[in-house]
Every structure is written in C-alpha cells, then in structure tokens.
Amino acid sequence: xxxxxxxxxxxxxxxxxxxxxxxxxxxxxxxxxxxxxxxxxxxxxxxxxxxxxxxxxxxxxxxxxxxxxxxxxxxxxxxxxxxxxxxxxxxxxxxxxxxxxxxxxxxxxxxxxxxxxxxxxxxxxxxxxxxxxxxxxxxxxxxxxxxxxxxxxxxxxxxxxxxxxxxxxxxxxxxxxxxxxxxxxxxxxxxxxxxxxxxxxxxxxxxxxxxxxxxxxxxxxxxxxxxxxxxxxxxxxxxxxxxxxxxxxxxxxxxxxxxxxxxxxxxxxxxxx
Length: 273
Ligand SMILES: Nc1ncnc2c1ncn2[C@@H]1O[C@H](COP(=O)(O)OP(=O)(O)O)[C@@H](O)[C@H]1O
Ligand SMILES: [Mg+2]
Known about the structure:
273 residues, alpha/beta, Rossmann fold, six-stranded mixed β-sheet, 8 helices, binds adenosine-5'-diphosphate, binds magnesium ion, AAA+_ATPase
C-alpha cells in the first residue's frame, strides 16, 4: 500500500445548469487497493466518474495524479494518464470477437493491414495475466459469452493499455452468484497487480468482500471515505441513506448542513469532518 494516492480529487464542484450535482467533493484512489464508491441513485457517482474520465468538465476543484496536479479535459487526457472506465452497458459489440472488441478503435496495424497476430497475442497475454481461463476461444463472438465472461472481456480491455486506474460501474449488477464471485476475484486481482481500482456498487456484500476503502456520496457530497475494516454494513447503509452515521458523515442532519463534510480522505480512524 502506498501513501501517495494515485488519484486525488479536491474540492470538485459540478453543476448541470442550476442543479449542483457534486459539491466540494474530495476523493482518493490508491494503487494496490479497491475503493468502493457507494451512494443512492442520483447521488452523483456516475457524474464523478465522468469527471475523472474527462467526459464532463468540472466547475471547480483540483486533480492530482501520482501527486502532481493534472487537468483532465477529455477522455484522451484520462487515457493518457492510464485511467480506464468499464461502463455499466460495457459497450461491447456482439457481432465482433473478443480480440476485435478489446482493440476496437485502437487497432494495431502493420502497414495498411490490421496486425491480427500481435493483437491476438496481446489479448491472450492480458487474459492470462489476469488468470482468466474461462474463455475458450479469443475468436468467438462476444454474443456467445455469458454475462460474467463479457464483464471479464470488458475489464481485460480496460487493463490492456497499461492502465493505472480502472473504474468499474456496477460490474456485477446483472450477474448470478457464481459469475459475481468470478468477477469479484478478478477485481481483487487487478488491485493485487498494483492497479488502483474504483468499484461502483449497490451490493454491500460485494463492497465488503472486495474493497479496501469505501467512499460514500450523499446528494453530491462525499460524506465519508474510510477503510472498509473501520466501518460496518449498517453504517454504510446509513451514510448512503442519511448522509451520516454516528460520528461519520454530515455533522448536522437536515437543511443548512451543506458543506459540513470535509471529506478528508486518508484517515484510518474513520472520522471525516
Ligand atoms: N447530463 C446531465 N444533465 C443534467 N443532469 C444530470 C446529468 N447527468 C446527471 N444528472 C443529474 O445529476 C444527479 C446525479 O446523477 P448521477 O451522477 O447519474 O448519479 P448516480 O450515478 O449516483 O445514480 C442526478 O440528479 C441526475 O439527474
Ligand atoms: Mg450512475
């Protein structure tokens, strides 16, 4: 575990027109760790991820990457830093095979033609490096894969590009028990390889099974970011639903308390205020 976060956000504000969706948000992601990003529908999780991945410009705030200030103004900027997002709908093409999907839009060429042997080898090495053994042929169409296999391919696609930070939006939402376990193992392996992983999830079992830290968004405010070992299921549920739990989260409930959660993020005690 490293003391310097791979990614640190400070004071992020984001509005869509008159609606402020993110308010003074602080967030860190550490190499070798899984950070679960939790929050109710509409809390701002996807918006935060889209700010990190350069899809939405922020109104205010700072980004630090490996301790240095950076600006992320486009998905290209994010990719250049090694930030990859696996979106919930996966954006895989059913009518293409695994290799074609993994290299979609970033194909390797040899002169004018596609360099299929190189792409196939890189795809095979990436899947092997993630200890993925459930896929029979790299040349099978994605339409023939199970939900868990599709998620695996989408994750492998994200780590193919020497990524340092992989963000997964609800990767197990549509999966059964066995496939969920497989994907969570893969998530854990990504972190064990040294990547910083951000896992958006509604499933407390998944969050507690795999995360090192939990960051809770409530109505656009980061009300706590704590080590998973320092918090209970029911406390996380309270943070999600009420924005506070005991000494965690918003200092006062109700109107007028906006901005009371400072979101100090490198605490081991768990108190965030
Ligand atoms: N492009 C947009 N334009 C206007 N409002 C948006 C846009 N994207 C998200 N929102 C609003 O921002 C809030 C947070 O949404 P979102 O980030 O999707 O939450 P979550 O992913 O936590 O469910 C919601 O109230 C949503 O309606
Ligand atoms: Mg969302």
